[in-house]
Write a structure and sequence with these properties.
Elements lengths: L18 H7 L4 E5 L5 E2 L14 E5 L4 E9 L12 E8 L3 E7 L13 E9 L3 E7 L2
Parallel strand pairs: 6-8
Antiparallel strand pairs: 1-2, 1-3, 4-5, 4-7, 5-6, 7-8
Length: about 140
């Protein structure tokens, strides 16, 4: 299985980190950690940019993180026109992981504040696709 089932619009069908999609389908948001130098990556990488090694382990992002920055999108690019408005965000999690993604529409935009705690969870999209979003813990 490739990477074609990830996200609403995807132009990448194959990646060495395609297990990411399998984990989302299993209900887990996972990423990779280099077992040689300890560097953690999101999105997942199979080859470490820090030390060049290809020895990785998959780790789950299961603890709440802290909202670092966000913006509400009012005009969606191709493939996202019908989704607006939606809020995108960067959230810093323990273990040095920073994740970029969408905040759930169940959180009112007037309640979104830098520093708030958020959790990343898998979601099912239309056409048997998967992704993730941020929700309140």
């Amino acid at each position: 299985m490739g990477f074609e089932k990830f996200g609403a619009v995807n132009f990448t069908s194959e990646t060495k980190a395609s297990d990411f999609v399998k984990f989302l389908e299993e209900g887990k948001v996972m990423t990779t950690k280099c077992t040689r130098c300890g560097k953690v990556y999101f999105p997942p990488r199979i080859d470490c940019c820090a030390c060049g090694a290809s020895e990785i382990e998959w780790i789950e992002i299961d603890e709440p993180g802290e909202l670092v920055a966000y913006s509400t999108v009012m005009y969606g690019p191709t493939g996202f026109e019908n989704d607006v408005p939606y809020t995108i965000a960067a959230v810093r999690f323990p273990k040095g992981i920073q994740v970029f993604g969408r905040i759930s529409k169940k959180i009112p935009t007037d309640k979104i504040k830098v520093g708030m705690k958020l959790k990343v969870v898998p979601i099912k999209l239309d056409s048997d696709r998967v992704s993730y979003q941020f929700v309140q813990p």
